[in-house]
Fold:
Amino acid sequence: MLSNQPFFLEGKDDRACLMLHGLGGGTYEMQFLGEYLHQKGWSVQAINYQGQDRQGVPMPASTWDTWYARILEAYQALAERYRCISVVGFSTGCPLSLHLAYEQRVDQLVLLSPYMAIRHQWYYLLRLEAYVSSIGQWVESVPSRNKPIRDPEMRSMANQAAHFTTFNLATVRSAMTLIAQVKSEIPAIQTPTLIIQSSEDTVVDPPGAEFIYHHIGSATKKLIWLHRSDHIITLDYDRETVFAEVGAFLD
Structure:
Protein backbone atom coordinates (compact mmCIF):
# COMPACT_ATOMS: atom_id res chain seq x y z
CA MET A 1 0.00 0.00 0.00
CA LEU A 2 1.02 3.60 -0.54
CA SER A 3 1.32 5.99 2.39
CA ASN A 4 1.50 9.78 2.46
CA GLN A 5 3.52 9.89 5.67
CA PRO A 6 7.09 11.28 5.69
CA PHE A 7 9.71 8.56 5.86
CA PHE A 8 13.39 8.09 6.61
CA LEU A 9 15.18 4.86 5.73
CA GLU A 10 18.67 4.48 7.16
CA GLY A 11 21.21 3.14 4.66
CA LYS A 12 24.51 1.30 4.90
CA ASP A 13 27.04 4.03 4.08
CA ASP A 14 27.55 7.79 3.95
CA ARG A 15 25.21 8.54 1.03
CA ALA A 16 21.83 10.20 1.54
CA CYS A 17 19.03 11.07 -0.87
CA LEU A 18 16.44 13.78 -0.22
CA MET A 19 13.20 13.18 -2.14
CA LEU A 20 10.82 16.04 -3.01
CA HIS A 21 7.24 15.45 -4.12
CA GLY A 22 4.93 17.36 -6.44
CA LEU A 23 2.38 20.13 -5.89
CA GLY A 24 -0.58 18.81 -3.92
CA GLY A 25 1.00 15.36 -3.95
CA GLY A 26 3.01 13.79 -1.19
CA THR A 27 5.58 11.24 -0.18
CA TYR A 28 3.51 8.40 -1.69
CA GLU A 29 4.79 9.61 -5.09
CA MET A 30 8.35 8.78 -3.98
CA GLN A 31 7.69 5.73 -1.79
CA PHE A 32 8.58 2.86 -4.14
CA LEU A 33 11.59 4.66 -5.63
CA GLY A 34 12.79 5.46 -2.10
CA GLU A 35 12.49 1.81 -1.08
CA TYR A 36 14.43 0.78 -4.18
CA LEU A 37 17.28 3.21 -3.44
CA HIS A 38 17.35 2.10 0.19
CA GLN A 39 17.85 -1.49 -0.96
CA LYS A 40 20.89 -0.23 -2.89
CA GLY A 41 22.41 1.17 0.30
CA TRP A 42 21.20 4.78 0.31
CA SER A 43 19.76 6.57 3.29
CA VAL A 44 16.52 8.04 1.99
CA GLN A 45 14.35 10.83 3.37
CA ALA A 46 11.03 12.05 1.95
CA ILE A 47 9.21 14.99 3.48
CA ASN A 48 5.84 16.68 3.01
CA TYR A 49 5.87 20.44 2.59
CA GLN A 50 4.33 22.87 5.05
CA GLY A 51 0.72 23.48 4.04
CA GLN A 52 0.62 20.18 2.16
CA ASP A 53 1.37 17.90 5.11
CA ARG A 54 -2.13 17.04 6.31
CA GLN A 55 -5.33 15.89 4.72
CA GLY A 56 -7.98 18.51 4.10
CA VAL A 57 -10.75 19.55 1.77
CA PRO A 58 -10.18 21.87 0.09
CA MET A 59 -6.41 22.03 -0.29
CA PRO A 60 -5.14 25.00 1.80
CA ALA A 61 -3.13 27.87 0.37
CA SER A 62 0.64 27.76 0.86
CA THR A 63 3.70 29.37 -0.72
CA TRP A 64 6.90 28.02 -2.20
CA ASP A 65 9.14 29.77 0.32
CA THR A 66 7.48 27.84 3.17
CA TRP A 67 8.00 24.57 1.27
CA TYR A 68 11.61 25.49 0.65
CA ALA A 69 12.21 26.34 4.32
CA ARG A 70 11.25 22.79 5.30
CA ILE A 71 13.36 21.36 2.47
CA LEU A 72 16.39 23.40 3.54
CA GLU A 73 15.98 22.24 7.12
CA ALA A 74 15.91 18.60 6.01
CA TYR A 75 18.90 19.12 3.68
CA GLN A 76 21.02 20.73 6.42
CA ALA A 77 20.28 17.89 8.83
CA LEU A 78 21.36 15.33 6.22
CA ALA A 79 24.47 17.33 5.30
CA GLU A 80 25.64 17.15 8.91
CA ARG A 81 25.55 13.34 8.83
CA TYR A 82 26.39 12.27 5.29
CA ARG A 83 29.27 12.88 2.89
CA CYS A 84 27.21 12.64 -0.32
CA ILE A 85 23.82 14.36 -0.66
CA SER A 86 21.70 13.72 -3.74
CA VAL A 87 18.28 15.22 -4.40
CA VAL A 88 15.44 13.59 -6.35
CA GLY A 89 12.57 15.87 -7.30
CA PHE A 90 9.27 15.01 -8.90
CA SER A 91 7.10 17.58 -10.75
CA THR A 92 7.08 20.75 -8.58
CA GLY A 93 9.78 19.07 -6.54
CA CYS A 94 12.04 19.68 -9.56
CA PRO A 95 12.16 23.51 -9.47
CA LEU A 96 12.53 23.20 -5.69
CA SER A 97 15.45 20.79 -6.24
CA LEU A 98 17.02 23.13 -8.77
CA HIS A 99 16.76 26.07 -6.38
CA LEU A 100 18.38 23.99 -3.65
CA ALA A 101 21.21 22.99 -6.00
CA TYR A 102 21.66 26.67 -6.89
CA GLU A 103 22.03 27.66 -3.23
CA GLN A 104 23.63 24.60 -1.62
CA ARG A 105 26.09 21.82 -2.41
CA VAL A 106 24.19 18.98 -4.05
CA ASP A 107 26.27 16.09 -5.39
CA GLN A 108 23.68 14.71 -7.82
CA LEU A 109 20.33 15.89 -9.07
CA VAL A 110 17.48 13.78 -10.45
CA LEU A 111 14.47 15.52 -12.02
CA LEU A 112 11.37 13.40 -12.74
CA SER A 113 8.54 14.89 -14.83
CA PRO A 114 9.82 18.41 -14.13
CA TYR A 115 7.14 21.08 -13.81
CA MET A 116 8.28 24.10 -15.79
CA ALA A 117 4.92 24.76 -17.48
CA ILE A 118 1.45 23.24 -17.52
CA ARG A 119 0.78 21.14 -20.61
CA HIS A 120 -1.10 23.24 -23.14
CA GLN A 121 -4.07 21.57 -24.81
CA TRP A 122 -5.26 22.67 -28.24
CA TYR A 123 -8.79 23.37 -27.01
CA TYR A 124 -7.63 26.17 -24.68
CA LEU A 125 -7.40 29.62 -26.27
CA LEU A 126 -4.57 30.58 -23.89
CA ARG A 127 -2.09 28.63 -21.81
CA LEU A 128 -3.56 27.55 -18.47
CA GLU A 129 -1.06 29.75 -16.61
CA ALA A 130 -2.85 32.76 -18.11
CA TYR A 131 -6.18 31.62 -16.68
CA VAL A 132 -4.64 30.88 -13.28
CA SER A 133 -3.12 34.38 -13.17
CA SER A 134 -6.28 36.16 -14.38
CA ILE A 135 -9.68 34.66 -13.53
CA GLY A 136 -7.94 32.40 -11.03
CA GLN A 137 -7.55 35.45 -8.78
CA TRP A 138 -11.27 35.14 -8.00
CA VAL A 139 -11.40 31.35 -7.76
CA GLU A 140 -10.01 29.73 -4.62
CA SER A 141 -9.63 26.17 -5.86
CA VAL A 142 -10.54 23.75 -8.64
CA PRO A 143 -11.28 20.00 -8.43
CA SER A 144 -8.47 17.62 -9.21
CA ARG A 145 -9.19 14.55 -11.30
CA ASN A 146 -7.92 11.03 -10.81
CA LYS A 147 -4.19 10.85 -10.33
CA PRO A 148 -2.38 10.97 -13.70
CA ILE A 149 -1.28 7.33 -13.78
CA ARG A 150 -2.14 4.95 -16.61
CA ASP A 151 -1.67 1.80 -14.53
CA PRO A 152 -5.17 1.31 -13.02
CA GLU A 153 -3.98 -0.54 -9.92
CA MET A 154 -1.40 2.11 -9.08
CA ARG A 155 -3.88 4.90 -9.85
CA SER A 156 -6.34 3.42 -7.36
CA MET A 157 -3.65 3.17 -4.69
CA ALA A 158 -2.51 6.75 -5.29
CA ASN A 159 -6.08 8.10 -5.11
CA GLN A 160 -6.46 6.48 -1.70
CA ALA A 161 -3.14 7.82 -0.40
CA ALA A 162 -3.49 11.41 -1.67
CA HIS A 163 -4.36 14.18 0.77
CA PHE A 164 -6.33 16.48 -1.53
CA THR A 165 -9.10 16.33 -4.11
CA THR A 166 -8.67 20.00 -5.11
CA PHE A 167 -5.91 22.38 -6.22
CA ASN A 168 -5.60 25.75 -4.49
CA LEU A 169 -4.92 28.30 -7.23
CA ALA A 170 -3.00 30.70 -4.99
CA THR A 171 -0.63 27.80 -4.30
CA VAL A 172 -0.32 27.13 -8.04
CA ARG A 173 0.52 30.81 -8.62
CA SER A 174 3.26 30.59 -5.99
CA ALA A 175 4.73 27.59 -7.81
CA MET A 176 4.68 29.63 -11.03
CA THR A 177 6.63 32.38 -9.24
CA LEU A 178 9.23 29.84 -8.17
CA ILE A 179 9.58 28.52 -11.73
CA ALA A 180 10.14 32.02 -13.11
CA GLN A 181 12.96 32.54 -10.61
CA VAL A 182 14.53 29.14 -11.18
CA LYS A 183 14.73 29.66 -14.95
CA SER A 184 17.30 32.39 -14.34
CA GLU A 185 19.26 30.18 -11.91
CA ILE A 186 19.53 27.05 -14.07
CA PRO A 187 22.60 28.15 -16.12
CA ALA A 188 24.63 28.54 -12.92
CA ILE A 189 23.89 25.02 -11.65
CA GLN A 190 26.88 22.69 -12.12
CA THR A 191 25.42 19.60 -10.42
CA PRO A 192 25.42 16.36 -12.47
CA THR A 193 21.79 15.96 -13.51
CA LEU A 194 19.48 13.21 -14.72
CA ILE A 195 16.12 14.20 -16.24
CA ILE A 196 13.36 11.67 -16.99
CA GLN A 197 10.19 12.75 -18.80
CA SER A 198 7.27 10.95 -20.42
CA SER A 199 6.10 12.16 -23.81
CA GLU A 200 2.58 11.14 -22.72
CA ASP A 201 2.50 13.41 -19.65
CA THR A 202 -0.92 15.12 -19.44
CA VAL A 203 0.03 17.49 -16.59
CA VAL A 204 3.35 19.21 -17.33
CA ASP A 205 4.61 20.33 -20.71
CA PRO A 206 7.21 17.74 -21.82
CA PRO A 207 9.43 20.38 -23.53
CA GLY A 208 10.20 21.67 -20.03
CA ALA A 209 12.58 18.72 -19.65
CA GLU A 210 14.41 19.79 -22.80
CA PHE A 211 14.60 23.38 -21.54
CA ILE A 212 16.38 22.23 -18.39
CA TYR A 213 18.68 19.90 -20.33
CA HIS A 214 19.78 22.59 -22.77
CA HIS A 215 20.14 25.41 -20.22
CA ILE A 216 21.59 23.80 -17.11
CA GLY A 217 25.26 24.59 -16.57
CA SER A 218 26.27 21.05 -15.68
CA ALA A 219 28.73 19.29 -17.97
CA THR A 220 27.29 15.95 -16.87
CA LYS A 221 23.62 15.65 -17.81
CA LYS A 222 21.30 13.06 -19.29
CA LEU A 223 17.72 13.24 -20.59
CA ILE A 224 15.64 10.05 -20.87
CA TRP A 225 12.25 9.86 -22.59
CA LEU A 226 9.48 7.46 -21.62
CA HIS A 227 6.42 6.67 -23.73
CA ARG A 228 4.05 4.45 -21.72
CA SER A 229 3.40 6.52 -18.60
CA ASP A 230 1.46 9.61 -17.64
CA HIS A 231 2.75 12.19 -15.17
CA ILE A 232 3.55 10.17 -12.04
CA ILE A 233 6.26 8.06 -13.63
CA THR A 234 7.44 6.71 -10.28
CA LEU A 235 4.20 4.71 -10.04
CA ASP A 236 3.22 4.12 -13.65
CA TYR A 237 4.02 1.48 -16.28
CA ASP A 238 7.62 2.70 -16.73
CA ARG A 239 8.41 2.73 -13.00
CA GLU A 240 10.93 -0.14 -13.17
CA THR A 241 12.81 1.73 -15.89
CA VAL A 242 12.76 4.87 -13.73
CA PHE A 243 14.11 2.94 -10.73
CA ALA A 244 16.92 1.36 -12.75
CA GLU A 245 17.96 4.60 -14.45
CA VAL A 246 17.92 6.61 -11.22
CA GLY A 247 19.82 3.90 -9.36
CA ALA A 248 22.46 3.62 -12.07
CA PHE A 249 22.91 7.39 -12.28
CA LEU A 250 23.27 7.85 -8.52
CA ASP A 251 25.74 4.96 -8.30
Summary: DSSP finds eight helices and nine strands in the chain.
